[in-house]
Amino acid sequence: MDDVRIGEILEPVGESENRRREKRVRERFWQTVRKAVRQIPMMEDVVAGYYCALDPRTPLRARGILLAALAYFVLPLDAVPDFLAGIGFTDDLAVLTAAIAAIRSNITPAHRQAAKRALRHDHADAD
Question: How many Cβ atoms sit within 10 Å of the Cβ of residue 14?
Fold first, then answer.
């Protein structure tokens, strides 16, 4: 996946689009995590990013970047459909890696601890 496409996915959007993305992410995140956990080596960072994106103390720009990446992650059909064994999450991984690299300083120890707990326990109870 090229940098131009990733940049388009992560570019800032308005408040209403961010709310729509947040709703989509909240509805589908844990289901997608269950499918992708063995295919995405940085899942703890992804889950920490989820908690960071939902934290109202996170700056709006960082939240927007994370919500864009997480919304792309939870879409059932994207550039490379997730159901393709072995390669289905490669595009998601590229987008998530770029987003997390851009906002890494906003992911707090509390977000990381919540991610560790969530991944150790049943994801359905993580919200």
Answer: 9
